[in-house]
Amino acid sequence: MTRSAVLVVEDDFLIRMQAADMVEEAGFHAIEAGNADDAITILEARDDIRVIFTDIQMPGSIDGLRLAHVVRHRWPPIAIIATSATDVTLDDLPAGGHFIPKPYSLADVGMHLRQVTADQ
Prior knowledge:
Blueprint: E1 5-9, H1 13-25, E2 29-33, H2 36-45, E3 49-55, H3 64-74, E4 79-84, E5 98-101, H4 106-118
Parallel strand pairs: 1-2, 1-3, 3-4, 4-5
Domain Response regulatory: 5-117
Keywords: Phosphoprotein, Transcription, Transcription regulation
InterPro entries: Bact_response_regulator (IPR050595), CheY-like_superfamily (IPR011006), Sig_transdc_resp-reg_receiver (IPR001789)
């Protein structure tokens, strides 16, 4: 059975590595991007990504919240999980988006990934 691909978008290298490890430990295939621009380039080149797991506060031309809205518009089937150390309401996210506050645990990541992929 093929593992679902999850695009982990995080500008902090160590946090991105840790998040990717959690995604892998939860049974998914992690693909990494350091910012929203790189994430869009990856999404344009691949058709196997089922979930984006994105930090909200990132440098670059757009932040993770805007990335979530772009993904919902351009790739509607891709599930969205956003994370941040600051408060975010579900109203800020596109329809169907999920939010995990930082710091998150392997259990949090795994539960949300299983939930959003079960809905697909």
